[in-house]
């Protein structure tokens, strides 16, 4: 199954679930009287619709990340797995937040805690972020390519074997592979 078939299948599945959910919602408007049962049914139907939408996005994050993995050039290999995991995490987080909103659960305190945690993680992962930004810069500017011989800050000379987002694999003339953080290049 190629990418367009997979995307179409995910959209079809989500659309079918949404059509049935909206049909049940329309039927419940005329059949179920106001009250606790109606509110509960509306929230369940809204939850099903939310899960269908975010579930389709979650399933599609893999095929879209595979677009980043397809290498038109064998010279630069880009790690896309972390992009897929980050995207899936964000989709799960937004989906869970949406579900809690449907059920009218106040999450402002939790979001404040997540913000503080995020700031702490940002401080703790400065080196990782620096390497990712440097890797994206190295790849986009094509400062060097696989097969190029480069000298690393006067430390050693070697041949570039692979360029990733976090590090670059360089094999020295002594045939020892070294992973150099992109921020050092």
Automatic annotation (TrEMBL):
KW Membrane (keyword) present: yes
TM ranges: 13-32, 44-62, 107-124
Presence of keyword Plastid: no
Gene3D superfamilies: 1.10.287.1260, 2.30.30.60
Membrane topology listed for this record: Multi-pass membrane protein
InterPro entries associated with the record: LSM_dom_sf, MscS_beta-dom_sf, MscS_channel_2nd, MscS_channel_TM-2
One family name in Pfam for this protein: MS_channel_2nd
Principal location listed in the UniProt entry: membrane
Keywords (A to Z) from UniProt: Membrane, Transmembrane, Transmembrane helix
Domain called Mechanosensitive ion channel MscS: residue spans: 127-185
Domain of life: Bacteria
Subcellular location(s) per record: Membrane
Family per similarity comment: Belongs to the MscS (TC 1.A.23) family.
PANTHER family reported for this sequence: MECHANOSENSITIVE ION CHANNEL PROTEIN 1, MITOCHONDRIAL-RELATED, YNAI-RELATED MECHANOSENSITIVE ION CHANNEL
The protein's name in its UniProt record: Mechanosensitive ion channel family protein
């Amino acid at each position: 199954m190629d990418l367009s078939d997979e995307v179409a299948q995910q959209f079809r599945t989500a659309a079918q679930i949404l059509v049935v959910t909206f049909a049940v919602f329309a039927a419940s408007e005329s059949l179920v009287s106001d009250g606790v049962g109606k509110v509960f049914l509306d929230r369940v139907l809204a939850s099903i619709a939310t899960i269908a939408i975010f579930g389709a996005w979650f399933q599609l994050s893999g095929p879209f990340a595979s677009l980043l993995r397809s290498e038109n050039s064998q010279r630069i290999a880009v790690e896309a797995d972390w992009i897929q995991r980050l995207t899936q995490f964000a989709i799960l987080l937004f989906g869970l937040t949406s579900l809690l909103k449907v059920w009218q659960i106040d999450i402002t305190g939790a979001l404040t805690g997540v913000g503080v945690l995020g700031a702490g993680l940002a401080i703790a992962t400065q080196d990782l972020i620096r390497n990712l930004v440097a890797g994206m810069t190295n790849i986009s500017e094509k400062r060097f390519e696989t097969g190029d011989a480069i000298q690393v800050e006067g430390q050693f000379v070697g041949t570039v074997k692979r360029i990733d987002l976090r590090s670059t694999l360089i094999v020295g003339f002594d045939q020892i592979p070294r992973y150099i953080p992109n921020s050092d290049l």
